[in-house]
Design a protein that fits this description.
Number of strands of chain B: 4
Shape of chain B: globular
Shape of chain A: extended
Number of helices of chain A: 8
Distance between the termini of chain A: 96 Å
Helix content of chain B: over 70%
Structural class of chain B: mainly alpha
Strand content of chain B: under 5%
Largest sheet of chain A: 2 strands, antiparallel
Helix content of chain A: 55-70%
CATH topology of the largest domain in chain A: Four Helix Bundle (Hemerythrin (Met), subunit A)
Radius of gyration of chain A: 28 Å
Number of domains of chain B: 2
Order of helices and strands of chain B: HHHHHEEHHHHHHHHHHEHEH
Order of helices and strands of chain A: HHHHEEHHHH
Strand order of the largest sheet of chain A: 1-2
CATH superfamily of the largest domain in chain A: NADH-ubiquinone/plastoquinone oxidoreductase chain 6, subunit NuoJ
Oligomer: heterodimer
Radius of gyration of chain B: 26 Å
């Protein structure tokens, strides 16, 4: 057994064990941390495949950003520390995940399945022949990746779409966090008050009394 | 090989000798490779930890001088043994754990932060041929690994089960995740100019063919260098961006419940991250280890010490920024300027090329490297100044509007008050 095989087994165990603990952990925060552990295992698998760019991207995006979002969502959840996160939806979740697993297994697996006219599965993965060296990853793989992103015959449209999405998100974040002028603040409060008037029963309309008190001096004059 | 060459390549020669020794004992193979890599990692981590000790001493001395104090001067000559005294104190302190802490999370956080801080050093080139792993995504790897400290700090803040810790952790996330964006954005111009993400290639691009230093990228990209440095200060959570451990507001932030060696690991993480950012800044913008006369590793040391001195200088002189100022600086100043800068650099680097090969492949105007540097320098400065002037005008308009509003409110108040003269109804 070579060292890379041992590493592969270790990393696979990290991925699967982390995944199992995500659903098994009693504490939601711990579940989020096990999710990060699972992501970390995937990073290791990418490294074993010599896909260092994807490994770094996985680390930066999933461990550095998405997991933080997940943890924040967990912390904002009411009763995150409650010991019983399981609920009655687990049979439905089980069915959905089993179906998903079956679909993926058919698409990437060795068994040929014919549905209607089309045949799925029976993928011939490139495999290592005993005694022959593993083909090396070409040096210019990053250059090729970059070129495929700007090549109109490959992924240029998707790349531009993603770029526009990110730009819109950035502009939107700045717009949401902008300084309001006093007029905007008043308008927003009025809108909120209207909404709450529509929603709330009449006995909650306390501000009326205060409004009379404020207007009293000018009315009395 | 002459004496000078031997001194210049000292680290590489010693390393090769040790590697030969290991191969001689174990025979060539995977196990020997593993042992050699393990030894390299051990030496690297030890060297970084020793540097950490030196950095704490230097920082205390320099900040003391800035603030007109003496600093540590009792333990050894010039207080040089102070870090060792600190270490002994840390070891002998009681290792407390809060009763309601989330034990696993609480204990794992300092280990994670120290591990990933040290991991950064595996790809940094210290001298020609002296690099843990010359991977083709070097810069990206450094930034990706640096982002792991966010998770560790969040774990520390949550695991301590203390409101100040959690507040510190929340601030950290807002700050570190936010400042990763300008950090990455300002690495992109360097990648464009050097045509590679490998740190070794980036250093070579700033070195002439004869090994002497060429034009460093700080001359090409002053705006990127400035923004990268500010983002680096924020990423390491140092003053003036030390909101995550603001003593006067949230005691000590995320590490308020830690004591003894666990606290020391947090300090190690902070200083090692600072060292890593300093070295990455030197590699990206100051030409890395290239320099005349002196050996290359000495040059790296000198340049890193200079950058770290600026870090200490900021800590000694600047007050802490407010949270809203921190966010405004990031999203309203640094990110837009960086995006404009990237577009300008992309266009200019495409139009003005320095190598005939690129010209024949993509077209463009062939210019000398000095001319390209001058063009990019002027473009950077123009973007910086015009951006700042737009923002200054906008700030002035906002301020005038606010003043006008206050003035009109005052006038209204005066009018109401004069109505009451002689017979105002009692409230």
């Amino acid at each position: 057994m070579t060292i890379s095989q041992i590493l592969f087994i270790v990393m696979s165990l990290v991925v699967l064990g982390g995944g199992v603990m995500v659903v098994a952990a009693r504490n939601l925060f711990h579940a989020a941390l096990f999710l990060i552990l699972s992501f970390f295992g995937v990073t290791g698998l990418y490294l074993l495949l010599d896909a260092s760019f994807f490994a770094a991207a996985q680390f930066l995006v999933y461990i550095g950003a998405i997991s933080i979002l997940v943890i924040f969502a967990v912390m904002l959840t009411r009763g995150a520390m409650a010991a019983q996160p399981a609920n009655s939806q687990w049979p439905a979740a089980l069915v959905v995940s089993a179906i998903l697993f079956a679909i993926i297994a058919v698409i990437v697996g060795p068994i040929a399945v014919t549905i209607g006219e089309r045949q799925f599965g029976d993928v011939s993965w490139p495999s290592v022949v005993e005694g022959q060296p593993v083909p090396a990853v070409p040096d210019d793989i990053l250059v090729r990746l970059g070129q495929s992103f700007v090549d109109f015959n490959q992924y240029a449209a998707l790349f531009l779409l993603a770029a526009v999405l990110i730009l819109v998100a950035m502009v939107g974040a700045i717009w949401v966090a902008r300084d309001r002028t006093p007029r905007e603040v008043i308008e927003e409060r009025a809108e909120l008050a209207e909404e709450s008037q529509d929603m709330a029963p009449p006995q909650h309309q306390l501000p009326v009394k205060n409004a009379e008190a404020v207007e009293a001096p000018t009315a009395g004059h | 090989m002459s004496v000078i060459d031997t001194i210049n390549n000292l680290i590489k020669i010693v390393g090769d000798a040790v590697a030969d020794l290991v191969v001689g004992i174990l025979g060539a193979g995977q196990i020997a490779d593993l042992v050699i890599m393990g030894l390299g990692a051990l030496v690297l981590c030890t060297a970084v930890a020793l540097t950490f000790m030196g950095m704490t001493w230097a920082e205390r001395k320099v900040v003391a001088r800035i603030q007109n104090r003496v600093g540590p001067n009792q333990a050894g000559p010039f207080g040089l043994l102070q870090p060792i005294a600190d270490g002994i104190k840390m070891f002998t302190k009681e290792d407390t754990t809060p009763a309601s802490a989330d034990r696993w999370v609480y204990n794992a956080a300092p280990l994670i932060i120290a591990t990933f801080a040290l991991l950064t050093f595996s790809v940094l080139p210290f001298a020609p041929g002296v690099v843990g792993a010359n991977i083709n995504i070097g810069v990206f790897f450094v930034i990706a690994v640096g982002s792991a400290s966010t998770v560790a700090i969040l774990m520390a803040g949550w695991g301590s089960n203390n409101k100040y810790s959690l507040l510190g952790a929340f601030r950290t996330v807002a700050q570190l995740v936010g400042y990763e964006v300008p950090m990455l954005l300002n690495v992109i111009p360097v990648i464009v100019l050097s045509g590679s993400m490998s740190l070794v290639d980036i250093v070579q691009r700033q070195t002439l063919a004869d090994g002497n230093p060429g034009i460093p990228f700080i001359v090409y990209l002053p705006l990127s260098a400035l923004a990268f440095f500010i983002a680096g200060v924020a990423e390491t959570g140092r003053s003036p961006f030390d909101l995550l451990e603001a003593e006067s507001e949230i005691v000590a932030g995320f590490h308020v419940e830690y004591s003894g060696m666990k606290f020391a690991l947090f300090m190690l993480g902070e200083y090692v991250n600072t060292l890593a950012v300093s070295i990455v800044f030197v590699i990206l913008f100051l030409g890395g280890y290239a320099g005349p006369i002196l050996p290359s590793y000495i040059w790296l040391l000198i340049k890193t010490a200079l950058v770290f001195f600026v870090f200490m200088w900021l800590r000694g002189t600047l007050p802490r920024v407010r949270v809203d100022q921190l966010m405004a600086l990031n999203w309203k100043v640094m990110v837009p300027l960086s995006v404009v800068n990237i577009i300008a650099v992309l266009i200019l680097a495409k139009v003005f090329v320095t190598s005939p090969g690129l010209q024949s492949a993509n077209g463009g105007i062939l210019v000398a490297p000095e001319a390209q540097a001058l063009i990019l320098f002027v473009a950077n400065i123009v973007i910086l100044l015009s951006g700042l002037s737009i923002m200054a005008r906008r700030a002035r308009v906002l301020r005038l509007a606010e003043e006008a509003q206050i003035e009109s409110r005052r006038a209204a108040n005066r009018a109401t008050a004069s109505n009451f003269i002689g017979g105002a109804p009692a409230k």
